[in-house]
Amino acid sequence: MRPNSPVPPLILLVTIYVILASGFITRPGRAASQPIFTDTAECDQQFWDRTYNPSRLQVIQRCISVTGTVEEVGANSDGDYHMLLRLETGQENLLKRKNMKNKKGRLVLEIVCANPVQEKKVGTTCNGFSNPLPLPKIGDRIKVWGSYVIDTNNGWAEIHPVTKILPI
After folding, report:
1. Domain at 162, CATH number
2. Which pTM value belongs to this model?
3. Among 75, 58, 79, CA closest to 122
């Protein structure tokens, strides 16, 4: 290429796509609270090693962040800390019909190996591991990172495993 020649269209398109996909530029009309697809730096994939029966989880996006308010918490017998998150406006597209019907229109969040395991079928998934993530309480407003999945046993959408949590 000559120094003053225009950038080939394909290179220009690829460059624009990479910039938009990386999140450095916000697309027009996008609400600030919409889910942000991030690189895997915020999503430690080692948490998948502590996920009981991961084959039941259909991965839609390997790393995503969402914001909202915790409305329900509980300990699952598989050792996970289970939460229902009321998403902030603009993130409703993450909810599936089963979330609307069975989870009060809330997104399910699961922190793996945060509680004692009571089910034998979980095996050694949590052995020797104590999840360092904070356990939010009802009413906490949080930003969460993790894998956006469909739990094929139940049909609802989840962030599972949760890999990072920050209070807002």
Report:
1. 2.40.50.140
2. 0.76
3. 79
Q: How many domains does the chain have?
A: 1
* 77-116 residues labelled b (16+ CB within 10 A) or e (exposed): ebbbbbbbbebbeebeebbbeebeeebeebbbbbbbbbbe
Residue 32: per-residue pLDDT: 40
Task: State whether residue 114 is helix, strand or coil.
Answer: coil
Are the beta carbons of 91 and 106 closer than 8 angstroms? Answer: no
**Residue located via tokens 């969402």:** 66
| Residue 60 domain flag | yes
Q: Identify which has the larger pLDDT, 147 or 13.
A: 147
Confirm whether 14 is domain-assigned. no
pLDDT tens readout for residues 60-94: 999 999 999 999 999 999 999 999 999 999 999 99
Domain extent for 79:
31-167
- Helix then strand count (H, E) for the chain reads 2, 6
d(CA 37, CA 114): 25
Tokens of 29: 């009309």
Handedness of CA 97, 99, 100, 101 (dihedral sign): positive
Displacement of CA 114 from its chain's centroid (Å): 17
CA gap 162, 111 in Å, rounded: 5
